[in-house]
Structures are given as C-alpha cells and as structure tokens.
Write a structure and sequence with these properties.
Elements: H1 11-19, E1 24-28, E2 31-34, H2 35-51, E3 59-63, H3 68-79, E4 83-86, H4 93-103, E5 107-110, H5 115-121, H6 125-130, E6 132-135, E7 172-178, E8 186-191, H7 192-206, E9 213-216, H8 225-235, E10 238-241, H9 250-259, E11 264-267, H10 269-277, E12 291-294, H11 301-310, E13 315-320, E14 330-333, E15 349-350, E16 354-359, E17 372-378, E18 384-385, H12 389-395, E19 396-398, E20 408-418, E21 424-429, E22 433-436, E23 439-442, H13 443-451, E24 456-465, E25 472-480, H14 488-495, E26 507-510, H15 524-541
Parallel strand pairs: 1-10, 3-4, 3-5, 5-6, 9-10, 11-12, 12-13, 25-26
Antiparallel strand pairs: 1-2, 7-8, 8-18, 13-14, 14-15, 16-17, 17-20, 19-20, 20-21, 22-23, 24-25
C-alpha cells in the first residue's frame, strides 16, 4: 500500500474497513474491535472534536490506559486533523503538567482510573482555563477543580460517517515527550510522512500480511507503539494489546504469546532478558510466531542465545533509532544463533531512505573501526522539538556532507564504529543519557528533580550497567542539609511525585560532601565505581 493512496496514518484504518470490515483490528482480553467498528468509533470522536471547536493542527492529549478505545482515540485525533500528544496515565501529575504547559492542548481525552490525576492537573489555573476534558468512561468523574464547562458532549450523539479534513502527510501527527537534560521534557515532533516511510518499508521487508497477530507491548507514550499500531493497520493485521501488568509476570507473558498465537513480537529487549532470566520459554515454543524484533536498547547476547536456541523457526531482528528519527533508522536480522556470549550484535545497516554516518567531534567521517558519533540523515528526521528552536538547532544541524541548503543531520549522541563487515556497532552514550527498561532517560533531569527535594544540599546522579531487567541502574549520591533528617526512602517517595517510576534512582548513598576530581568537578567516575563495588558486595553476600 503506497503513500499515493494513503496520505495520513488514520487512512489505513478506513482502507481496511472498506476491504475487510469484519476482520479483527485490535484486541485486549475479551474486548475486540473489528476494522469497521474501529473506523466508526474513530469517526465519532473526530466529529466530536471538530464540533467542539478543534481545528487542524490543534493538540489533543490522551490520558488513558492502553485499550481498544485508546487506539480508536488516536485514530480519531488524526481524522480530526489534530496532533496527538500521549500522556502516561501512571506518570506524576507534576511532569504531566509540564507537558501540558508546553503543548497547550485544547482537549484531554481521558478514561480509566485517572480522575485523581485530572483533578490535580486542573488545580493549575492555566490548564483549567484552556483545556476541556472528553471523558470516555460510563460514569463521568468530576473533581473539585473540574466543572461542567470542561466536559464534552457524549460520543454516541455523533454519527460514525467519515469526516473530511484537509491534512496531509507533511503535517504533524504527534508529539512524543522524552527526557530532557535541563529538567524539562523535550517534545519531539513527528509527521505522518515520517511514520509512513518506516511502516511501509517494514511491512514489505518483514512480510507483514492480513491476518497477522501482532503484539502491542509498548506503552502508548513510547514511540515504538507507532509501529505496533500502524504497522498492524497498514497490513490489515490484528493488534493484540499486551496488559502492562504482565511485564512483571514472565510466565504469564509467555502464556499470552502462546495463547494469542502471535505471529510477531516487538518490544524493548529488557523484557526478553527478563523472560530468559526466569526460563519461561519452552523449546520450539510459540509455533505461530514468525518474527521477533527489539529496539530501544542493547539486547544482552546471552539472552538472545537463550531465545534463538528455543525458537529456531523465528527470525530475530535488532532495530535501532532514537525518537527524533522515527521508530528506527537501522536494522539487522541475525543469520544464525551466536556462539559467543561476549559477541556484540550490530545495529546493522540503514533502513531505505535513511543513512547512518559515523563522525568525529569535528563532524568529519571517521575510518572503519574508529569510534565516532552516530549521525542520521533521511526521511525519518523529526522537524525538531516543539517550540524549542535552540534545542532543535543544537541537535538537527546543517549536513556538512551535503551541498543543498535544506539538508539536515541529527546528532544522536550515541557512539559507534563501522565494522569491516560494513555493519554499524553501537558502543554507548556520549553524554549522560542512558537507556533503562527501554526508556531514554537524561540523568540531568533526574538530578535537577533531586536538587529540589527538601533536605538535599547537593547531589549527583550516575548510572551503572547491569545484565538485569533494567538495562542500567540509576544511582543517586546526595548530601543532606545540616540538621535535616533525610533517608533514601523519604527522598525516593518525594521524587516519585515528580518523576515516573522508570526514572527513579534504584540505589542511594549519602555523603558529607560530593567527591571532586583534580579539576574541581564532581568525580562521577569515582561515584560509578563506588556504586558498582557496593552492588557487587551485596551480590556476593547473598550468594
């Protein structure tokens, strides 16, 4: 299906509804929507948005758990010509409020156990005065701060006939907020064309076809969810949303893959590593599964060997790419099971329309085998950060290798080398950004938040490596204020009101003063070594 017939992401749903209205589109537990039902439900929401004053280019935030209704809302927001902004329903209200101040949505479409969060958000006068709430639950939940003027008409009052909004592929589809080093999340702008270029290639390359049963594992506020959703709809497959609670129940997660007869699994590798750790995959398990893909962080080779030995009928593909370049920019399908547990798995070669170049600090190409920064050019590049030209100009630079004035290059901050085999090998981060549980986290944002806590005089946040589920452990060294009673438990509890769970430090250590190096700067290397040694001592003590 080419972009000549489909110009926006939502149109894939309409095409499938016309071709195969009875076919399943999205499933969660006992709830299932066909393509016809999904098309109708998204049309009703689009009409409701338009009738309530939303216009093309307006931002609409989504605050609800992953569900078929949430998927219909995403499609409906696109059909109204609006820009989708996902909010983490498990996130702290303070961080969500920062996102709302940034994107200024006219609407928050909400459902599920989020009434308390909404009430807390609406204590903010700016949010209360500028935002309406579309509640999709059976009972309207009103708080102290949310009045009748914030609510919308009931969706059943609107017809499910198609809407015609003149938006095109070059228009913004969504804004995903990622961790920012200054303490404020960054809003990455992504167009319909950005996503469609990747999805159309991936559907062809991986042979996704009608009837495929595809996992929907990623949270909706994580950009990998775009491939889950629209890779499925572009091919006419069926999206099986993975209940989030299964992430800490590896045996039940394996049973979900088994009983759902999934043909494709896509997730961050920490989940694969976690399932391998608990040995929940049988030999020749998941007979319907044809391909397994991961993205977001490095998959430990021992965990990959575990999976590949048990599933010889499955192809395994590593995808790589930051949010700023849309889902993934490179790919590598393993030709066979690795024999060496210490061998690195490459991030491979660029997807069509993309190019990965390894550059020096002076932005010159480095020879094969030399370490440099991964920079990306091509069709996946985001237009930049929402209302943040300074950050945009720093990350999206004029392409020094191209003569055309419009050529851009995205500096990822990732270190890599080009192997003699022509494949790119990821080596780590250039700055303080890490990946934990598949999430990209700026340690500077965590540090900024800790410094605001009562009782903290100073702090430094570092990360140490681990082969466990987390991928990297965030560690916090802090200096208590004189006369203040400060414990790690109290600090963690206070920080949880500001940051989502995956950004909270796992280990804490109090100091009279932070250690410094010869330059008078905080000695972060010493701190990392100290936290690592402490962790190793505890591990030895428990053996």
């Amino acid at each position: 299906m080419s972009s000549l017939t489909v110009e926006r992401l939502d149109q894939w749903v309409s095409v499938q509804a016309a071709r195969r209205p009875w076919a399943g589109a999205v499933v969660l537990s006992g709830e299932r929507l066909t393509y016809s039902q999904l098309d109708g439900a998204s049309n009703r929401l689009a009409r409701c948005l338009i009738a309530s004053g939303c216009r093309a280019g307006d931002r609409v935030a989504l605050l609800m758990p992953k569900s078929p209704a949430a998927i219909a809302c995403i499609v409906g927001i696109y059909k109204a010509g609006c820009i989708y902004v996902p909010l983490d329903p498990a996130g702290p209200a303070r961080r969500l409020g920062t996102i709302l101040h940034s994107c200024e949505p006219g609407w928050i479409v909400a459902a599920g156990p989020v009434g308390g969060i909404l009430d807390e958000l609406f204590q903010d006068e700016q949010i209360r005065e500028g935002t309406r709430v579309g509640w999709l639950g059976s009972d309207r939940v009103e708080g102290r701060q949310i009045g009748a003027e914030h609510w919308t008409p009931a969706l059943p009052d609107f017809p499910d006939a198609p809407v015609d909004v003149p938006t095109r592929g070059r228009d913004l589809a969504h804004i995903f907020y990622t961790s920012g080093s200054t303490g404020a999340p960054k809003g990455v702008m992504i167009t319909h064309d950005n996503v469609m270029h990747f999805v159309e290639w991936a559907v062809r390359h991986f042979g996704v076809r009608p009837g495929d049963r595809i996992s929907g594992h990623s949270p909706l506020h994580f950009d990998l969810s775009m491939f889950d959703i629209f890779g499925t709809f572009a091919a006419g497959g069926e999206l099986y949303l993975v209940p989030p609670e299964l992430n800490i129940q590896p045996a039940k997660l394996a049973e979900f893959i088994r009983t759902s007869a999934l043909t494709q699994w896509f997730s961050v590798p920490s989940i694969l590593n976690y399932m391998a750790k608990f040995d929940v995959v049988r030999f020749r398990d998941f007979p319907a599964l044809r391909r397994l893909l991961w993205c977001g962080e490095v998959c430990p080779t021992p965990a990959l060997i575990y999976w590949m030995r048990r599933l010889p009928h499955v192809t395994f593909t590593n995808l790589y790419g930051p949010t700023e370049t849309t889902i993934a920019s490179s790919h590598y399908t393993l030709p066979g099971c690795p024999t060496d547990e210490t061998a690195a798995v490459p991030i491979g070669t660029a997807c069509p329309g993309e190019e990965l170049v390894i550059l020096s600090d002076e932005l010159r190409p480095v020879p094969a085998g030399t370490v440099g920064e991964v920079c990306i050019r091509g069709v996946g590049l985001s237009p930049g950060y929402w209302r943040d030209p300074e950050r945009t100009d720093a990350a999206f630079i004029p392409d020094p290798q191209r003569a055309d004035p419009g050529g851009r290059l995205y500096r990822t901050g990732d270190l890599a080398r080009l192997g003699e085999d022509g494949l790119v090998y990821f080596l780590g981060r250039k700055d303080s950004q890490i990946k934990s549980r598949g999430y990209r986290i700026e340690l500077g944002e965590v540090e900024t938040a800790v410094r605001t806590l009562d009782g903290v005089a100073d702090c430094a946040v570092v990360a140490i490596g681990t082969e466990g589920f987390e991928g990297a452990l965030i560690c916090c060294a802090y200096v208590p204020r004189p006369g203040k009673e400060v414990s790690a438990a109290r600090l963690r509890g206070a920080l949880s009101e500001m940051l989502p769970g995956y950004m909270l430090p796992f280990r804490w250590m109090a100091f009279d003063a932070l250690p410094t190096n010869a330059n008078g700067k905080v000695d972060r290397r010493w701190l990392k070594e100290t936290f690592q040694a402490s962790r190793e001592r505890e591990t030895q003590a428990h053996r």
